[in-house]
């Protein structure tokens, strides 16, 4: 049975007809901003920290050639195949994608889910009952010459598959199809955002419209057993842990 039928996906011909010549906009992405602070705590001087940072950089996968001129914030998402679980639209052996969100609240909802996973994966919670981390939220423009809107026809009837909270097999198959059809990037509805905000994914760094982020913001995250809170720019966002759970547990990605 063709995998398009196996996973109840639109036919390849139908997917082809849905490809548009332009998708462009702004994507927001959240990253931890503690790397240099963390390594500084392990050494005595800035010179030693520079050496340690260099060693850590060498231990990472090499940057793809088409990312050499990009700021590290833009290049890093393309750096890490294979991934342990893959991602929503990428299988373990495929090059990784750049994922972002149409707005900050949606980006924070996606991040909150992974903070829940981090908390549940800890051997022991901190004595204080909360974990505070520093994060950078940045924006960048994207411009795809071949794109798809997975939130519009003919994909409306496939949203249960595309937004499944833990089974990524169908969406990963669609990702493979899009990659083979030459799609540069696409928009899709977030499975983690309670307001069903839009996410963006890019298969290639060539879909980025700039080599540097447009805007950076500093935020603080507080993680606990009950909630995830983000504070920055004079506003506060709170997500309840139970909102990400299935049968009382946070689902692992791509499980």
TrEMBL record:
Span of domain RES: 77-214
InterPro entries: RES_dom
SMART domains: RES
Pfam families hit by this protein: RES
Record's protein name: RES domain-containing protein
Taxonomic source organism: Paremcibacter congregatus
